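Morning. Coffee machine broken again, so started the prediction first thing and wrote up yesterday's gels while waiting. Chain of 482 residues, entered below exactly as on the submission form.
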Amino acid sequence: MKNLQNLLFKVPINSIYGNTNILIENLSYDSRKIKNKSIFFAIKGESYNGLDYINESISKGAIAILCDSIPNKINKKLVYVIVDNVEIALGIIASNFYENPSSKLKLIGITGTNGKTTSATLLYNLFNDFKISSGLISTISIRYKKFFFKTNYTTPDPIKINSFLKSMIDNGVSYCFMEVSSHGINQNRISGLEFYGAVFTNISHDHLDYHKNFKNYRDTKKSFFDNLSRESFALTNIDDKNGLYMLQNTKAKKYTFSINKHANFNLKISENLFSGMLLNFENNEFWTKLVGRFNAFNILTVISVSKILELDTISVLKKISKMDNVNGRFQIFNSKKNIKVIIDYAHTPIALENVLNTINEIRTKNENIITVVGCGGNRDKKKRSIIGKKAALLSDKVILTSDNPRNENPKIIIDDMIKGVFPSDFKKIIKVIDREKAIIESEKISQPGDIVLIAGKGHETYQEINGKKKPFDDYEIVKKYF
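Came back before lunch.
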């Protein structure tokens, strides 16, 4: 229970109607979840306006309304707080409500198109291996101590984030590694949080249905670094052409990492095999079970953060050499027919290209690469043809299928993917709309020694069709038929 006056600390306010000297027990931006003595945040979404749900929230127990304009009807028993941006205010109030937990631990945010989940998860595992109690907020899960929660979003809403961070504090956690998505930044879900550090992995074509163009997408990522304090650190991958751009206006201490250029932290790939990689950091050779150049960048991200946070380098390398891959990220299944099946979350053009390039670098050329891939419905349509083109160029056979079609016709999605395929590669293409049947088909046409890549869904355990999620796990389907 918190006094509303205290909760409004640091919130940019235009006007207030009513007495703010009241006690608040709950926060909610969903009128269906309002409880007694709540603040209702009247957020305007793409398809709804929170102002339309004020009366419902009052009927369920809201005693304060936070909105960006004065409602037509004022209830004199309530408090109305008018602000320019309700989402920003929500983040600040949520932090105040949970006693600003992000200032009481070291919160490190990782942003980029690819590599966020793997880097954040490896850092979480590494620090806990060092007996440094740490938390994780990722696409897959929220984890700390004995607690484990599955997640649906890369970056949760501010109420959930602060609630979990407060619980982490209460359970003795001192570091938290958090994925920070472009949606989360743009929708102010990280408003009010104090980040001890921020990491940029890379950026490529993704989410342009939401951001409209690449510049908006890139600048959204950059704003995360622009808002860091002088006490924070900012770490960036300068092998990405936008890496240094991220640091241009940040007040934070700047660090760089690279495989190809001179940087604060450098890594060399000595060997790259399906069983792992031999890497060299500061003239120390070490082995990792993780495969591929993209994973070398993930490992370098982890080492760089550990160096900034002053962990012992040799101990870090020893612990990394024992780490397993993250579920659904270049996860290898060896079949009884001696077919190597790789399950990967690659759902962007560059991620798919990275995975297929890795396979092509390691393969003997005496086998076929068979790729099973689809694209999500109701999402960035421009990347479909690029994914189709990359899959066909870098594979011997491609089975185009469904991913999460959502409310779109999967046949139309597949047709969009084929638009990018060169006519000379048409003979490589097989269309199988049902994803399970597509995986079965990949088993039928593969021969001993072949490599089958099943891309796009990775760790996901569902398929979203016509607004409903049905159980579907690529790895379980592979185990069943291979």
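The longest strand covers residues 62-67. Going to sketch it on the whiteboard this afternoon.
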